[in-house]
């Protein structure tokens, strides 16, 4: 049973019935998957803030391609690599599946910035300058098919990132995300998954400019919630610039998930596709 369980971790269970009954074919595919599944394509989009709708459409496209490949996999089909997108958004409020317009403290006909309904879990949050947003598109069969474990592991990435800059943060048992002094939420998490392929992710407030916009919503559905940022809790904010935090965050993500980040240089277009930036990558069906 243990041998079968390990095999299921890296191979689509449906593909077992397409292996011509040969154990050596299954072993060959499993070995190839194990070699590839530690690589993660890393899109570090730091040149300018990204429109939320474009990034959202791009995420869904990446997930569809991986979910489709998982469904159609055969013994000869290599798995598509995991993806990690790290960016900053233009100002936007996003509503998860548990949010309603009652959580918005502004006139939706004249909003202060864009607001978007999404299929991620959770309530309302804000994304904008001074914040780092991470979108892992992971095949959890390579890791662990457990969304609770996945959320806690994302929290661990954030906890270790904050600890690097001398900020002691913690979890809250009843809520996802990361908190300082058991009072200030500095990072939010909201995810979704299809066929164990993840989408959406986390947001870490780094600079103080990322905090005031939360006053226009009921963040995370909690009226009394206080929002903070990394720079609120370090002696010298200049010792934790956004780019330095970005680098540490990527390193901790790779360490905690035991992945090798492979840099790619593309960004989403307004239609949700991809726009190459000097680096030729694999075809659309492989990204």
Can you give a write-up of this model?
The chain is an alpha/beta fold and 287 residues long. It has one domain (38-286): Bira Bifunctional Protein, Domain 2 (BirA Bifunctional Protein, domain 2, 2-Layer Sandwich), CATH 3.30.930.10. 27% of the residues lie in helices and 29% in strands. The chain has 5 helices and 14 strands. The chain has helices at 2-10, 23-36, 52-72, 147-164, 242-257, and strands spanning 39-50, 82-89, 92-95, 114-117, 124-127, 131-137, 169-172, 175-180, 184-194, 197-205, 226-227, 260-264, 266-268, 274-276. Strands 1, 2, 6, 7, 8, 9, 10, 11 and 12 form a 9-stranded mixed sheet that branches. Strand 1, helix 3 (52-72) and strand 2 (82-89) form a beta-alpha-beta unit. Helix 4 (147-164) packs across helix 5. The chain is globular and about 45 Å long. The two termini are 33 Å apart. Residues 1-21 and 270-287 have low confidence and may be disordered. One of its GO terms (biological process) is protein lipoylation. Belongs to the LipB family. InterPro entries: aa-tRNA-synth_II/BPL/LPL, BPL_LPL_catalytic, Octanoyltransferase, Octanoyltransferase_CS. This is lipoyl(octanoyl) transferase. Residues 78-261 form the BPL/LPL catalytic domain.
């Amino acid at each position: 049973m243990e041998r079968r369980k390990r095999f299921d971790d890296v191979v689509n269970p449906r593909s077992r019935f397409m292996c011509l009954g040969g154990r050596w074919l299954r072993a060959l595919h499993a070995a190839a998957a194990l070699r590839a599944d530690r690589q993660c394509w890393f899109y570090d989009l730091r040149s300018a803030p990204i429109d939320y709708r474009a990034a959202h459409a791009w995420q869904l496209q990446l997930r569809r391609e991986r979910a489709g490949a998982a469904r159609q996999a055969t013994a000869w089909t290599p798995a598509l690599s995991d993806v990690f997108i790290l960016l900053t958004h233009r100002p936007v409020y996003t509503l998860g599946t548990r949010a309603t317009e009652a959580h918005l403290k502004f006139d939706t006909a004249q909003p202060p910035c864009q607001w978007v309904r999404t299929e991620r879990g959770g309530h309302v949050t804000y994304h904008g300058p001074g914040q780092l947003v991470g979108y892992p598109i992971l095949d959890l069969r390579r890791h662990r098919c457990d969304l609770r474990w996945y959320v806690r592991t994302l929290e661990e990435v954030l906890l270790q990132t904050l600890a690097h800059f001398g900020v002691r943060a913690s979890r809250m048992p009843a809520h996802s995300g990361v908190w300082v002094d058991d009072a200030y939420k500095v990072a939010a998490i909201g995810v979704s998954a299809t066929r164990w392929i993840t989408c959406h992710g986390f947001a870490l407030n780094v600079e103080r400019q990322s905090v005031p916009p939360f006053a226009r919503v009921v963040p995370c559905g909690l009226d009394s919630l206080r929002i903070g940022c990394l720079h609120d809790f370090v002696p010298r904010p200049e010792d934790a610039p956004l780019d330095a935090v970005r680098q540490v965050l990527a390193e901790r993500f790779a360490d905690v998930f035991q992945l090798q980040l492979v840099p790619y240089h593309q960004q989403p277009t307004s239609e949700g596709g991809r726009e190459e930036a000097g680096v030729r990558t694999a075809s659309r069906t492989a990204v």
